[in-house]
């Protein structure tokens, strides 16, 4: 059974577009993009920088430490075949919830699994 932890109000995240939260001792970066909420481990797998301080661009978050572009949905970086852990997110009654169990791809995800803006 999936455990969900309430982390923030949707309205607050919509205004800020990104936010760092802590769930069970883990820093998680939340991003509000194209009407969707995404959650990645906030500490970069490469240089340990905070992705919540990065730039969001074309469905990716750019790490401020070395400019790797992590896909918002999968955490994958094509150029380096690395992956940032991601977390499931749900929104109910204007509250954002995160499943504290991370997911990390070990191989390149299919294009259909990657960030796609809602139409």
User: Cα distance, first to last residue?
Assistant: 31 Å
Count structural domains. Answer: 1
Query: For the residues shown, what is the average pLDDT?
Result: 93
Spans of at least 5 consecutive residues whose pLDDT stays below 50 are none
Task: Outline the biggest β-sheet.
Answer: 4 strands, antiparallel
What's the CATH class, please? Mainly Beta
CATH superfamily: Rieske [2Fe-2S] iron-sulphur domain
> Order of helices and strands, N to C?
EHEEEEEEEEEEE
- Examine the secondary-structure arrangement and name the CATH architecture: 3-layer Sandwich
Beta fraction: 35-45%
Could you say which overall geometry the principal axes of the C-alpha atoms support? globular
- Count of helices? 1
What can you tell me about this protein's structure?
By secondary structure, the chain is mainly beta. It has one domain (5-101): Rieske [2Fe-2S] iron-sulphur domain (Rieske Iron-sulfur Protein, 3-layer Sandwich), CATH 2.102.10.10. The protein has one helix at 10-16; strands at 5-9, 18-23, 26-33, 36-41, 55-57, 60-62, 69-71, 76-77, 82-83, 86-87, 89-92, 95-98. Strands 2-3-4-10 form a four-stranded antiparallel sheet, covered by helices on one side. The protein has a three-stranded antiparallel sheet with strand order 1-12-11.
């Amino acid at each position: 059974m999936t455990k969900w932890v309430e982390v923030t109000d949707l309205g607050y995240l919509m205004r800020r577009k990104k936010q760092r939260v802590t769930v069970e001792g883990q820093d998680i970066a939340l991003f509000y993009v194209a009407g969707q909420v995404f959650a990645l481990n906030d500490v970069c797998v490469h240089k340990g920088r905070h992705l919540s301080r990065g730039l969001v661009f074309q469905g990716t978050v750019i790490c401020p430490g070395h400019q790797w572009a992590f896909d918002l949905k999968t955490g994958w970086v094509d150029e380096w075949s690395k992956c940032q852990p991601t977390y499931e997110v749900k929104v109910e009654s204007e509250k954002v919830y995160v499943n504290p169990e991370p997911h990390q791809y070990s191989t390149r995800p299919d294009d259909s699994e990657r960030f796609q803006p809602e139409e």
